[in-house]
What we know:
The protein is an all-alpha fold and about 90 residues long. The protein is built from three helices and no strands. About 85% of the residues lie in helices and about 0% in strands.
Amino acid sequence: MTILPYALGxxxxxxxxxxxxxxxxxxxxxxxxxxxxxxxxxFLNAICLIIILGIYWVTSLFEGALLVAMLGxxxxxxxxxxxxxxxxxx
Length: 90
């Protein structure tokens, strides 16, 4: 008997709860900085969820996690630039 499926189930529940809390902060955040940080954390949680599901289903979903990570970084950097200076590209 292996403990891996149980540990992955607990991880899935924890990441899902974390995503729900980030979504709440994204919707009702008091400032734009809180919303931006919640979006960045939501991207990080999505990456974790993809990797955990890839391990659970014994498939290779790691390319999808890498794609989400790149898009999350670019979108967070672009939104931070937009909120600080008012435009993305000089």
